[in-house]
């Protein structure tokens, strides 16, 4: 059986000025795969994720979605990414942020409806019904008319997940979705993400919750100095790490329990 | 020393002062409308990724920030006719001077409001597939406008007070009318007290309206 990877990354580089953050990343994500990205602070985890939906434009390398390489060759040999193509990519690759980034001037349901109406052109009534369904899925039906400032961090993050889901993304990116939450609110967000795993969604998750990563992921990558230092199953990378740096990283995060 | 206040002679000329007040409002309103249009264009130029668009806008804004308004009044009234062979009446010269100057200041108000919107808002919108125009219209501007109101009102008050300079072009706004009433009544204390009160009433009314608008625009907070 041959399946094309849903997402394929080849030789991805990203530099900010002289500072090279990603130094050649290769990655293939099959439909339904769940990748957990771990690594020390500043190792480039967020940058990698942000390159995948072009919040950052890669300095070099190739990214293909569903077998189709994105961008086109520019005159100087580099790749150029027309803004319209990137808007299309971002519709297909949803993102959930550490800081939620809900729109404060819109209620919970309006947050979920916004891009359906503005970007997809869905009629309002239909968008509202869809948004209600998504809020129901994350357990927030009764908060539909609340403004974000009236919601707890955990609730805000669940609205943000519903907002991303409403767009029917083929891939979901999570950048430390629970890192800015009070400890007692982490669980409710992780439960929602676990539920998405149960649906067979393709997801990439940057996290420091190694215990969660262990149960959530089909593949774990340990990022160090802008490269994949170790890649494998959760068991391989988290329980039986081979690399020295993976081991010392895990030792520093020894508080996690599987 | 006791001064015998007598407002009667001034109140008899209240119609002249009322006309002045109307004219003041007229210059201010026209200059605000024009200034907003100029300010929007300048703000967009300054936010543009192109240096070619940014540079002239920056130069324009710096020029107006660093020169006194009365010079602009004189320039539009005395210098422009010589240069361009069009002579402006005092009202037009005053409006041009005020709206270009406040356009420069409004541009900074608009730009400041837009750039004050957190990076996360731009990214949240972009990550959903919004184009730049969509995210401006649906996410950034609705939040930025609320933040622009206080500095916008501040600038507009500054502008309204600066309309008094139109008196130097012999345009019959409030201050000029006051000078006329004074020369007929010889009651400067009363005249200028009344005039001060009229400005005060005008601006306090305007600020109450502005507060109402701001509350509406930021009700979600
Ligand atoms: N927009 C930017 N401009 C310049 N440097 C940047 C930018 N974004 C990230 N960097 C730098 O790139 C490096 C990697 O950052 P990144 O945010 O990807 O790390 P991270 O692995 O997500 O870390 P953390 O665990 O702290 O979130 C850091 O040194 C950071 O300072
Ligand atoms: Mg990060």
Structural description of this entry:
The complex is a heterodimer of chains A (258) and B (221). In chain A, helix 3 (108-118) runs parallel beside helix 5. Chain A is an alpha/beta fold and 258 residues long. Chain A has a single domain, classed as Rossmann fold. Chain A is 36% helix and 25% strand. In chain A, a hairpin with a 2-residue loop joins strand 1 (7-16) and strand 2 (19-29). In chain B, helix 2 (14-47) runs antiparallel to helix 8 and helix 6 (119-127) packs antiparallel against helix 7 (132-162). With 221 residues, chain B is mainly α. Chain B has one domain: Orthogonal Bundle (MetI-like fold), CATH 1.10.3720. Chain B is flat, with a radius of gyration of 21 Å. Chains A and B meet through helix 2, helix 3 and helix 5 of A and helix 6 and helix 7 of B. The structure holds adenosine-5'-triphosphate (ATP) and magnesium ion.
């Amino acid at each position: 059986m041959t399946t094309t990877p849903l997402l394929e990354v080849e030789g991805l580089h990203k530099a900010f000025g002289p500072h090279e953050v990603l130094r050649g990343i290769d990655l293939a994500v099959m439909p339904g795969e769940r990748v957990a990205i771990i690594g020390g602070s500043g190792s480039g985890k967020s940058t990698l994720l942000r390159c995948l939906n072009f919040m950052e434009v890669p300095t070099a390398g190739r990214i293909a979605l569903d077998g189709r390489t994105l961008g086109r060759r520019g005159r100087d040999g580099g790749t150029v990414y027309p803004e319209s193509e990137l808007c299309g990519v971002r519709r297909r690759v949803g993102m959930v942020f550490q800081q939620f980034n809900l729109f404060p001037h819109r209620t919970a349901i309006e947050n979920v409806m916004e891009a359906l109406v503005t970007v997809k052109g869905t009629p309002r009534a239909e968008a509202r019904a869809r948004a209600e369904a998504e809020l129901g899925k994350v357990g927030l039906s009764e908060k539909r008319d609340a403004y974000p400032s009236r919601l707890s961090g955990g609730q805000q993050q669940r609205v943000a997940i519903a907002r991303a889901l409403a767009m029917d993304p083929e891939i979901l990116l999570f950048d430390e979705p629970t890192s800015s939450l009070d400890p007692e609110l982490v669980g409710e967000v992780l439960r929602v993400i676990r539920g998405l795993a149960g649906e067979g969604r393709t997801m990439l998750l940057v996290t420091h919750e190694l215990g969660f990563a262990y149960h959530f992921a089909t593949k774990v990558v340990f990022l160090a100095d802008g490269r994949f230092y170790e890649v494998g199953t959760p068991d391989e990378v988290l329980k039986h790490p081979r690399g020295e740096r993976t081991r010392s990283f895990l030792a520093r995060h020894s508080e996690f329990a599987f | 020393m006791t001064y015998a206040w007598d407002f009667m002679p001034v109140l008899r000329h209240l119609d002249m002062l009322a006309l002045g007040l109307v004219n003041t409002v007229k210059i201010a309103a026209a200059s605000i409308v024009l200034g907003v249009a100029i300010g929007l264009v300048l703000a967009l130029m300054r936010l543009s990724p192109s240096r070619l668009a940014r540079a002239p806008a920056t130069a324009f804004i710096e020029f107006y920030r660093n020169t006194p308004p009365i010079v602009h009044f004189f320039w539009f009234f005395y210098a422009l006719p010589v240069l361009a062979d069009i002579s402006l009446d005092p009202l037009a010269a005053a409006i041009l001077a005020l709206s270009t100057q406040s356009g420069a200041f409004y541009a900074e108000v608009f730009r400041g409001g837009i750039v004050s919107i957190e990076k996360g808002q731009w990214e949240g919108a972009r990550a959903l597939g919004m184009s730049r125009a969509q995210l401006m219209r649906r996410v950034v501007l609705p939040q930025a406008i609320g933040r622009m109101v206080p500095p916008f009102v501040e600038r507009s008050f500054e502008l309204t007070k600066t309309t008094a300079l139109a008196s130097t072009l012999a345009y019959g706004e409030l201050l000029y009318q006051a000078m006329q009433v004074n020369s007929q009544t010889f009651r400067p204390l009363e005249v200028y007290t009344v005039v001060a009160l009229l400005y005060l009433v005008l601006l306090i009314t305007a600020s109450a309206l502005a507060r109402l608008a701001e509350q509406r625009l930021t009700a979600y907070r």
